[in-house]
Amino acid sequence: MKQKTPKLPTRKDLTVNQPKPQLDILMVSYNTAELTLRAIRSVYEQTTQTDFNLIVLDNDSQDDSANLIAAEFPEVTLIRSTTNTGFSGGNNIAAKQSNADYILLLNPDTVVLDHAIDHLYQFALSKPSKGIWGGITLNNDLSINSHNAWSRPTTLTLLFSALGLSKLFSGSCFFNKANYGCWKRDTELEVDMIQGCFLMSKRSLWEELGGLDETFFMYGEESDFCLKAINLGYQPVITPNARIIHHGGASEPTFSGKMIKLLKGKVELVNRHSTSWEKPLHRALLWLYVSNKWLTSTLLSTLKPAKKEQALEWSKVMQDQKAWLKGWAK
What we know:
The protein contains 12 helices and 12 strands.
């Protein structure tokens, strides 16, 4: 049954002269100036019932991001990093500048829709024991982007992904449990892992876990955070009433570059959260996934020349297997 959109309080309902904001929004940008500015505009336009502070850490962007943000939004708490600290490091630095009881991780390649942050904050207040909350992500055409949440990696989910069954039967919660395939994103759902592009956490939990693990430079860190929270008795949960557009991968110029980082994150999760006997099997299944993608794209490129570039990208991923099979840990 579709959830009803909760009634939001107005500005008059907010406490006057609060000593600290209700919510700190953390945004880490890297060479995404135009997208970041659009994301910030949407935050201020759409977040009208929640008292918040927006903290943006710029990871040494070379596209004048920091200056453009400072010029258009002087009210933003802007941190200019002289090095690229990654997603984990950037958010951890930004979090040290915050003091609200709730923290929201928000990607710069997002657009906030229909008071999504207001709704997510009210949802968190209504379910305080969960500790971690998320919403629904949409593609630019407003179709559902199913990568807002995942189940923890298991032998079956990795096998079905490697064999292409999760994609072939994408609407199945058996073959595509990894992405909760049969969930239509119109109901609340308790999940294992929430994507870090739109993830709200209690500050107390953030501090208990020490923020994001900086071993993960980018990709996989929010999953690690959620799984560790579950081990402490918390339960990440999604509301359908908070929706944003998420472009994804905007700071990574190539498909192979993004995929190699994604695979590093997946392997690192396996190394940390799979059992000792599962670890070599799960790494092998990730290798099988890449191998099948490379082989399939190579065969398709012989029939369709337009697929040659995709085949070359998968070839690069395959060639770098020794690096990503180690995960993020050095």
